[in-house]
Each structure stands twice: as C-alpha cells, then as structure tokens.
Amino acid sequence: MYLKKKLMKAASICSYVCSAIWFVAAASAFALSDYTYWLFLIFALLSLYGGFAVTSIREKMTGVILEKKQNTLYLICWILSIVALPSFILNAIAYFRKTEDELVVIRQNVAQKEEPAPEREPEKKKPFYKTKCFVTMCVAFLLVFVCSFSAMIFETSGFSVKVSDFTLTKEMTETYNEGKIHGKAYTMENDTTYSVTMYVPSNATEENPAATVFVVPGFTRTKATMAQYCIELSRRGAVVFSLDPGGQGGTTETSTAGANGVEYLVQYVYNNTDDFKFCDKSRFGAVGHSAGGGNVCTLAADFAGDSYSESIIKSVYISGYIKASSANKYKNLNCNAALSYAYYDEGSFRYQTDSSALEVIMLRFINEVGGTKNDYKEVALDYGYGDMSAGTYRIIHREKINHCFEMYDKTSIANTLSFFDETLGMESGTDPYSQIWFGKEVSNGLALAAAFTFVIALCAVLMGVPFFATIKNGKKAKACVAEGPAADACTAEIAAGEAVADASEIGAEKPTDAPPDAAVAAVQKPKTFAHKVVFWTTMILTAIIACLDYIPLANLSIEIFPTGNSSSVFTYVFPARMINAILLWAVINGAIGLVLYYGTTLVENLYEKLRAKAKGTTPVYDWAKLEPVKIHGEKWHGVLFNVLKMLLLCVILFCSFYFLVQLCYWIFHQDFRFMLISAAPLNARMFVTALEYIPLILLFYVSNAIRVNGSIGREGWKEWKVLLVGALANSIGLAFILVINYVCFFMTGAPFYGYWGNGTEVWLYVNMVFSLVVMMFILPIFNRIFYKLTGSVWVGAIVCCSIFIMMTISASVSYIPM
C-alpha cells in the first residue's frame, strides 16, 4: 500500500503541474482570440479536479485493494487523467497494483544503561531586550542604515559627486529671467514649485566648468526613477539636474507648462551666474524617457535659436517617444540629437498610419535637420548621420527591451552615455557599459526589505507589552516575553483558552486536558473532496475575475472620475488618475471575495444541516471560519478599547515605517525602492491624496486578510504552503494579465490591451501591473504574519493598505491643486 500511495501522490502532483500548463495555454489562446481557449480551460479543470479526486481516494484507502465505490471513482480519474499524460501513466501503474508491499524490518537492540534524566530547572523569563523580536527589530533598523549608506556610496560615486535637492519657485524664475533665452521669458505662471535634484562632480568648478545635462522622467514617474542616468553621467564628469514633472513626486505644479517644468529649470540655471558657475553654459544637454522624451524635444526646439551656436541645448536624447506632435519639431532642432525607441515598446501599436509609423518618424528624424531636407530612403540603426561640429548629428537606437524597463536597460543607458560623451565633449574615457547604478538599486531594495522587517518585529515587540497584548488575548493579562519552554507554555495556555472558546461558540464539546492543537482539531472536519472542489473553485473563480475585470474597470475609471484621461483637470476628488483604476479593481474584487467567502461558508453549513437531518445525526458546523474577523474583548467596552488600541498600533507602525524613510533621506539622500517599487518621503500633496483612497481600497486588504487566515490558513497545511498558496491566489490573476498582453504582443505586434471600449488607450495601465503583481504577492504573507502576531485580521490589513497605497500614490501622478 505504501508504494501505491506514493504513485497516487506523484500522479496528483503531475495533475496539478499539467493544470497550470493548461491554464497558461488557455490564456495564450485567449490572447490570440482563438476559441480553443475553452478546450484548454476544460483540460486545466479536468487535471486539477482529477488531482483532488485521486488525493481524496488516497487519504481514505485502507489497503491496496480499494472498495468498489472508490475503485470505480479511481478508474474514472485514471481515464480522465489522459489530459495529463504523466499522471495518466502513474495512475495506470497504481490502479493495477494489487499486492501488498513487503516490509523487511531489521531490529537491532542495543543495550544501554538507562540513566534518569536530570530535572530541568524552570527557564527564567528573559528581559524584553533579549527576546528574538527585539533583537530582530534592532538588526533590521541597523540594516536600513547600512544599506542606505551603501546606496549613498553608489549614488555619489564614492563621495566624488555632491548630491543635493532644491525647490524651484516662481520667484526664482522671475529673479533670473533677463531675457537671455532668445529674448523670450520663461517664468512660472503659478505660485507653485518644482522638486529638483542636482549632481555636481568634485572636478566641476568655476575654473573648470562641466558639461550639464537635464534629465526628465516620463508620465507617472519621479526623478528618482531616472537616478541611473544621473549617477552614470555625473560619474563621468557632467553636472546633472533632474526634476519631478508637473503633478508628480514632490512637485506642487500640476500643469505641463514649460515642457513639464524643464524649460523653467534650464532658464534658471542658464541665467543664474551666481550659483551655477561650475556649469559650462556652452555644453547643455537634455535626456528624457517616454513623455519626458517629448518634453526634452520641446525644450530643444524652443531654445534652438537660429543656429547651432545660438542653441542653448547642444545635445538632446529622446527616448521612448515618437508621437507626430514631437516629430513636427525635428526640423526646428539646431543641436545634435539621438532617438531611441525600444524594440518591444508596447505603445508602438498606436503608430501604424502613413504619417505616424515608426519607419516614417525615423526617416523624418534623419532627414529634417536644421531647417534643411535630406534625402535618406532607409534608416541604419546605431549609425551616426551628419556633422557633430555643426549640430546636425543624428543617430537612432532600438534596444531589445520593452517601454517601462527601457530606462533600466544597460544598453539603453550605455547608448545615452556614449552620445553625451561625444556630443558634449565630456571625454570621460570610461566604458559606457561600466555602470554602477544597479548597486544603488540593490542597496535601496535591501533597505526596503529591512524596513518591512523592522515594522513586523516592532509589532511583535509591542504585542509583548501588556497594554497591546489584550488585542490578541481579549482580556487583561501579562504578556509573554519569555522564550523557549516558558514562552511555549504561556502561548499554549492562551491558545487552549481560545480553542475552548471557539469550540463553545460552534456547539462542539469542550476539550479538557487536550492540548491546543487537539482542541482545534476537535472542531475541524476532515477536508472532503467536495470541500476541496468548493475551495479551489472559489480560488480559480476569483483569479479569473481579477484578471478579466482590471482593464474594463480601468476604462470605466477614465469615464466616471473627474480627471478622466486628461492632465488638465485639477480636482480634490480622486485626483490620482492612474490609481483610480486600482481603486475600482480593489473595491469590486474585494467585495466579490467577501461575498464568495461568506457565501460558501453559509452554503457549507447549510449543507451540513441538511445532511445531518437526513441521517438523523447531530450537525457539526464550521463557523470558526468567521473567528479571524472577531475583535476580542470583555464586554462591549473591552471590544471598543481594543479597537482603539488596534488603530493606535496601526498608526505607530505606519509612522515608524515612514519615519525610517524620512530619516534615511535626511541623512543619506536615499529612499527605499527597487526599480518600479518605491517608498518615498511623504509630502502634503501625496498624503492628502492617499487619505481619499485608503478607506475604500482597505476593503480589498481586509478581504484578503480574511481569506488567508480564515480559509487558506485552516486547511491543515504546513505554514510555507499556506503562505505560498495565499501569495499565488492573490497575484495569479494579475500575472495572467501580463501573460495575455505579451503573448498577443509578441505574436501579433500589438498588445492585447491596447485600446478598449470606444478606442480609449489603456496600455499604460498594464505597465502598472508589473509593480502591482509584486505587492499583491507579498500582501498575503504580511497579512498572515500580522495575524499570527495580533490574532486579528484588521491590523495587517490596515497597516499594509496604508503603506502600500502610500507607496503607490507617491510613485504616480496626482492632479490635486495644492
């Protein structure tokens, strides 16, 4: 029987693997509008439920020869497992195995002198500063600073570059506006500000002024996402300025005037002879990605003058932006220029007409130069056209990367460095592929992980304080601060009490001398095949809904919210244009999750009542699934006090996290980030914006915390499996959005989610999924950890929602007029 069970277990695992493959095949067929996706979906479900059925048979079998009913069911499962060939073969071997295993037991008796075990003295309680949670908190706190210091070393190129921030105001642009930009004033219209970061190499002085480059990020990005360009350019001797465009990051200006603010910045630096003597004003360059590429093209055209010698901008690098409105300015450029467009740029589907196709735009770029018309018929990539000394140099690159990761691509950055090294006469002598910026990304990413660890450990420390311990215990009691057997005994006592309470609530017999695990087992029924079908069907259904409704809801957000799809509408009512899609998605899917959770709980218990009535037995209900939602406390005032304590705990944890962010930024000029995922210092605009979104999006976070701890966590699995299934269940739907979108893109040249509804562009919303899917993967893990620490789903949901939404909004755009 041992071997037969092993074969059946292996067959079940193969069924699950094949099911995952069929689901991917179904998504791929769906992406290509091939109706065979229904067939693949059926194969996936047959593989999945066949695996469940075989597992249930294996758990119930008592011998090699199965009972008649089980044998018939196994025969059906074996036949249906043809859709999972490895499983089919293993099931065939197991089905025809009718003999018992021969077990050879070799016993070796070794006489040993038994000595009475020495009595163990009761372990003394350790002071709180020696507990694991406190030590972990201190280590995490230290790691945050070590990693931030490491990131600072990379950003400053070993302290050879000074990095600082300043705020560009209307008064500053008025003070240094002497009409030197071809007689035109570039003064800010509103009494608002732009957030600017400046990189000054140590060898840039008044006696030896350096080439100067202005860096502009794209739509929804902040200047920190372009730090890699700033690091590598300043490392090679250039002074670099980077700013947050209108409505993004720390900038309070919400409009896109002045080429999103970069024209005001260039005018200020160019005319300010007091503070920027280390800038060589005859060697100004600019680079921007995506919308930032369009901004620097506008900048170079507006500051072009009548010739290369008059042009303020001597070199411009346009990355990821080929709109016709930008191409119309090529003829006005009186400077050297480069155009870069990723080979796998998802936005290219928009440019397919005779006037907007990429091939047409590239020809215009090399033909429309300095007011003259060249006659090139074909474009050679990575080839320099024109005369660099006359400002007619043109070069085009196409790196093999997609749009949102182009700014992190090593080749793309190397092409940018080579261009400015040559056209601005930097002559750094450093290989453009010799790049150190990724060291900063890794260090900031480790600091982010350490900060989350600090928050979790701090929660554990605070739960060891009697004041907060009642959140979990529901009554006044001394908190367990000991470790080892002493802590285990204390925890067991509390757990046993909670288990008894759970048992009494659902009408089961109260355990007396049984340990806590036995008490819990007494109120949990074995997981039947029907239960597994309901459990996994619910998981699959919510994942499919989350996958299919994201883009329609993104399109709906454009139609119903004031900001819509415009950057010229400023409002206090849900002003974060891109986050509105996440808001609708979170509310709808959170509500669906709660309905399915409570609905299946009600149906399962109703079925148990009808089954018990038909058999004349006492029903055993499973209302304990609702226990995680309960807030503990003695009487109503105890519950109220614990609610207030939970809110206080959440505020402390949130403030602690962002205090670390702010402290590291003050000391090291570093926030916490890894590429598209970031936690930046708070500012008033983003904080007020987040206050609008957190209460509504909290519904999704609570729904997830309930499902992870009230459903997945009660399946009797090992903890690693609970965490893995919870993480996958919460993120797999979003991951399949990427599968569908990019299978279609690579097979047809156009993304599946390009246009939606009445021709609305929605492809940028898919780019948001890259960071969103990572957050959704780790969310259930955090919710589970916080639940085990506090005994409540609410703490984890509120803390995670507050931090994650604050992170998301700070890295996006908000059109709030403040």
UniProtKB/TrEMBL annotation:
Listed transmembrane segments: 36-54, 75-96, 134-154, 446-469, 533-558, 579-599, 646-668, 680-702, 722-750, 762-782, 794-816
Keyword check for Membrane: yes
Keywords on record: Membrane, Transmembrane, Transmembrane helix
Name used for this protein in its record: Alpha/beta hydrolase
Top-level taxonomy: Bacteria, Bacillati, Bacillota, Clostridia, Christensenellales
